[in-house]
């Protein structure tokens, strides 16, 4: 099952945490059999109201999963106890253009070899902080 064309605007408080330099960001995918794979991807940032992007650096299993299953989960958290979960649909990799160039410049500054930029359309957003009860935000 995929979310399809359902997209939501990422709430402002979630954007702030996604943009925080000290936020931890986890990208979770699953293969065609449903076997999960979750990896830290610190380059995840919002690029539009309903889309986040990330640099393809060291994500071999993630990339293989995305070729077969477009459903993804991004969990972001910031100390001491702020966390959000964003569910979305992978929208492809870009290997050229302004977005790619912007990411490539940032990754080069960090001496990280980037291959492409992945896009995720966000379909649902949930609070994941303690005491929030997985409250749906968008």
Helix count, DSSP H or I runs of 4 or more residues:
3
Q: Can you identify the CATH class?
A: Mainly Beta
Query: Which strand order do you get reading across the main beta sheet?
Result: 2-1-5-6-7-4-3
Helical proportion, percent range: 10-25%
Largest sheet: 7 strands, antiparallel
Structural class: alpha+beta
* H-E string: HEEEEHEEHE
Catalogue the unreliable spans.
Answer: none
Oligomer: single chain
What is the number of strand segments? 7
Calculate the mean pLDDT score and round it: 91
Overall number of structural domains:
1
Strand content: 35-45%
How would you describe the shape?
A: globular
CATH topology: Pnp Oxidase, Chain A
Distance between the termini: 20 Å
CATH architecture designation: Roll
Look at the structure and name the CATH superfamily: Electron Transport, Fmn-binding Protein, Chain A
Kindly provide the radius of gyration, computed on alpha-carbon positions and rounded to a whole number of angstroms: 14 Å
Salient structural properties:
3 helices, globular, alpha+beta, 7 strands
Secondary structure elements and pairings:
Layout: H1 12-19, E1 24-30, E2 36-40, E3 45-48, E4 51-56, H2 60-68, E5 71-78, E6 82-94, H3 98-109, E7 116-127
Antiparallel strand pairs: 1-2, 1-5, 3-4, 4-7, 5-6, 6-7
Description:
With 138 residues, this protein is of the alpha+beta class. The chain has one domain: Electron Transport, Fmn-binding Protein, Chain A (Pnp Oxidase, Chain A), CATH 2.30.110.10. It has helices spanning 12-19, 60-68, 98-109; strands at 24-30, 36-40, 45-48, 51-56, 71-78, 82-94, 116-127. A hairpin with a 5-residue loop joins strand 1 and strand 2. The protein is globular, with a radius of gyration of 14 Å. The mean pLDDT is 91.
């Amino acid at each position: 099952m995929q979310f399809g064309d359902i997209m939501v605007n990422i709430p402002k408080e979630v954007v702030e945490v996604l943009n925080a330099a000290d936020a931890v960001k986890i990208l979770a995918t699953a293969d065609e059999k449903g076997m999960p794979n979750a990896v830290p991807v610190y380059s995840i940032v919002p690029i539009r109201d309903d889309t986040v992007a990330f640099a393809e650096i060291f994500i071999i299993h993630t990339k293989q999963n995305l070729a077969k299953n477009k459903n993804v989960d991004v969990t972001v958290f910031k100390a001491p106890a702020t966390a959000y979960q964003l569910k979305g649909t992978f929208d492809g990799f870009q290997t050229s253009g302004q977005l790619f160039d912007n990411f490539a410049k940032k990754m080069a500054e960090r001496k990280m070899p980037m291959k492409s930029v992945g896009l995720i359309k966000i379909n649902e957003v949930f609070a994941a902080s303690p005491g929030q009860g997985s409250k749906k935000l968008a």
